[in-house]
């Protein structure tokens, strides 16, 4: 008998011992256990993926809400800024017109004061000139008559 025969006999004895020790059952049990473990991991991965998709959808919804809220806040701020700008413009125009009116009133008052002062000075000068002229042309008798005539005219006006 040659070596090939003994190799075949050894192989059959080895396969018999493996079958007697229930190694194929242990291998199939280990493979089944590993398959169950992989199946569970796949199910867990599917659940995690679904949860991640739900979280992603929720975060996207929240982001859209935040963007719309930011847009509404921005538009409200722009409207408020525009209203404040218009209000400030109106108040500035009112202030300028009021200050202009006050300046014009002061100018008119200054003109009236200057005219009154010039008139008063002219009257004073006219009185002084008239006194000098009358003093040089009128004697004491004429002066007394003029005084009496003026006094009579004053009494007539007062009554």
Quickly list its features.
single chain; 159 residues; mainly alpha; rod-shaped; transmembrane helix; ion transport; ATP synthesis
Total individual domains: 1
- Name the beta content range: under 5%
The residue ranges in which pLDDT falls below 50 over 5 or more consecutive positions are none
How much is the radius of gyration in Å? 62 Å
Order of helices and strands, N to C?
HHH
Membrane topology: Single-pass membrane protein
Family: Belongs to the ATPase B chain family.
Function: Component of the F(0) channel, it forms part of the peripheral stalk, linking F(1) to F(0). The b'-subunit is a diverged and duplicated form of b found in plants and photosynthetic bacteria.
Coiled coil: 28-94
Report on this model:
- 96% of the residues lie in helices and 0% in strands.
- The mean pLDDT is 89.
- The protein is mainly α and 159 residues long.
- It is rod-shaped and about 195 Å long.
- The protein has one domain (3-158).
- The longest helix has 115 residues, at 23-137.
- It contains 3 helices and no strands.
Concise synopsis of the structure shown:
With 159 residues, the protein is mainly α. The protein contains three helices and no strands.
Set out the fold topology.
Elements (H helix, E strand, L loop, with lengths): L2 H18 L2 H115 L2 H19 L1
